[in-house]
Design a protein that fits this description.
- By secondary structure, the protein is mostly helical.
- It has helices at residues 3-16, 20-34, 47-63, 67-84, 90-106, 112-140.
Length: 141
């Protein structure tokens, strides 16, 4: 990621914060719509899960300018995801759902440049997490 992309992600996330609860609902509704099989990995009451999503996104976005600072947490999260039943092939679906949610939430502020920046951020983190969780074999598939 370039420093310009990091800045774009951080600036745009500041616009998501005021609508974060609605964005989290939208994210999970969309995820369960496009990948209904993953719903079984989540609790019936999604209140805490939505809070965890927002807290994780905030930590990642704030740490993008110093990736080394967030890699230990990303590593732990990747390992937990394996225990929940997540597979490497879920990561692209989650990424597409995240980008869709941001596009919906940001409306006219969503641009191709912003989409590329968020895609780069998610791609960087998800590639790392897949590598930690499943090794190079799964990451390449």
């Amino acid at each position: 990621m370039t420093s310009e992309q990091v800045a774009l992600v951080q600036q745009s996330f500041a616009k998501v914060v005021p609508i974060s609860e609605a964005a989290a609902v939208m994210f999970y509704d969309r995820l369960f719509e496009v990948a209904p099989a993953v719903k079984a990995m989540f609790p019936a009451d999604m209140t805490e899960q939505r809070k965890k999503l927002l807290a994780t996104l905030a930590a990642v976005v704030n740490g993008l300018s110093n990736l080394d600072s967030i890699l230990p947490a990303a590593s732990a999260l990747a390992t937990r995801h394996v225990a929940y039943g997540a597979k490497a092939e879920h990561y692209p679906v989650v990424g597409a759902t995240l980008l869709w949610t941001l596009e919906q939430g940001l409306g006219e502020a969503w641009t191709e440049e912003l989409a590329a920046a968020w895609g780069a951020a998610y791609g960087t983190l998800s590639t790392y997490m897949i590598s930690v969780a499943y090794g190079g074999r799964e990451a390449a598939e």
